[in-house]
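Hey, resending since the last one bounced:
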Amino acid sequence: MNEKSDQKMIFRTNSGPAPASTLKELMARAELHLQAEQQVLEAIPAELRTGTRFVSCQDGELVLATDNASKATRLRFRQHEIMEALRENELFRFVWKVRIKVSPLRYRARKKVEKIPLSQENARLLKEEAGHTKDKALREVLEKLASHVRD
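The structure tokens again:
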């Protein structure tokens, strides 16, 4: 059996008998993927682990995803070091190429914008400006804004 198909078999099946159901098969593959991801993350330098994920390994090509481009560049510079550490593991003995994708986070929790109440000094300046304005509509708007003062 050639080396490429040997690697496919390692990632496609588990070592025991074939699972009876699709769910069991999916769970077995997910468990194998989780173990592979842990081994890959151990081979990656500590400062680059956060935000980096193992995507796949097929035909000797290891695919990693990271959350930003600068981290992807640093991973590319250290890819030979990563491959060398990974080849010590049985699952990754035939890895010869690392491909790194940038996959930004889909959602970041944004801080709720707090409206800063109007200070007494700014309210006074708005009233003063309203008094100097000849446009009636603008004057009313400025006076209304000045009324939103904090206590």
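The two ends are 81 Å apart (CA to CA).

Sorry for the duplicate.
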